[in-house]
Amino acid sequence: MAQPAPIRREADRPLLTTALGLARRAVPVLPLRAGKLPFGNCQACADNACGGRPNMKASGPCRCTRVCHGWAAATTDHTILNSATWARAWQQAQAVAYHPGGAGLTVVDLDDASAIGWARHHLPKTRTVQTNRGEHWIYQGVMQSANKVRPGVDIKSSMSYARYLGPGTGILVDLPDMVRALSVKQASPTLSVLPGVSVPGPSVHGQCPHRSPAYLERGITIATQRISEATSSVHTTVYATFLAVLSTHGHCGCLTDTHTERLFAAAQARGETARHCHDAWVNALTRLGL
Fold first, then answer.
1. What is the pLDDT tens value at each position of the chain, 290 positions in all?
2. Residue 3 burial by Cβ neighbours in a 10 Å radius (0-12, 13-18, 19+)
3. Which helix (H) or strand (E) holds 181?
4. What is the DSSP string of 107-174?
5. Cα distances (angstroms) measured from residue 262 to each of 49, 74, 213, 250, 281
6. End-to-end alpha-carbon separation of the chain, Å?
7. What is this structure's pTM?
8. What is the largest CA-CA distance in the chain?
9. Alpha carbon distance 48, 68 (integer Å)
10. How far, in Å, CA of 170 to CA of 84, rounded?
11. At CB < 8 A and 24+ separation, what contacts does 70-74 make?
């Protein structure tokens, strides 16, 4: 008679043990597969057909308890982390990641010696974690995530994930204004969100000639909210929203990298890929003759 499979103890699952330990400290976690990538959505959530889970709320548009929606899958719920639906992911996982913003943190990811040297010269000392190529400098506070803010420097906080590589050393300090300022770029004809994405240059007077800055800010807020609240046809909603923003402000050059990054971040939180954001933006520019 076949013997039943032995129940695996928590100690036999080192990645899950690490994840549960972080969750007990209110750090939302998720497993990563090969290549430091999150697991793909399940069939029901494929192509964001479920409506997505941008805010990680149980009452949100997606009630899937699988490892779906990238960073938004991060959780502190031990029931979910230990569930049968997550079991296969943990068996295949090669690392544990966490959502810094969900834990009230910001990670300055320094990829090389040059970036580390810059940080040591310009940023206050804080908790530091060694990585394969450089260091993670961790600060208390949340901000918008941004890639390539400087050569070899990425910022991982809200709507992002970072690989957990240990507790690090040093005392955690508050997020400095210098780091926040890294994600605030001046208006430029070329956006750094994705290669090849661009908007028209500024108007003669350097500002929108027919609307106030407050109107632009309100428009971007409404646009990101429209994308975040889409429960179906997300692809179409993203394109239509990009088109609406560009039709109003694309001719006068008042859009900055920061505005566009907010739109792209909202779309990617709904499950859109960076490539789709790029294509939707370029298609909207082309349609408007920009």
1. 444 444 344 444 899 999 999 999 999 999 999 888 999 888 888 877 787 765 554 445 677 889 988 888 999 999 999 999 999 999 999 999 999 999 999 999 999 999 999 999 999 999 999 999 999 999 999 888 888 888 999 999 988 899 999 999 999 999 988 888 777 542 233 333 344 444 444 444 444 555 567 777 888 888 888 888 877 677 778 888 888 888 777 777 677 778 888 898 888 888 888 878 887 887 777 777 66
2. exposed
3. helix 177-182
4. EEEE-SHHHHHHHHHHS---EEEE-SSSEEEEEES--B-EEEEETTEEEEBBB--EE-----BS--EE
5. 22, 21, 16, 16, 13
6. 73
7. 0.62
8. 85
9. 10
10. 37
11. 70/38, 70/161, 70/271, 71/30, 71/38, 71/97, 71/99, 71/159, 71/160, 71/161, 72/159, 72/269, 73/30, 73/38, 73/39, 74/28, 74/29, 74/30, 74/98, 74/99, 74/102, 74/161
Q: Record the tokens describing residue 253, joined without a space.
A: 């050059």
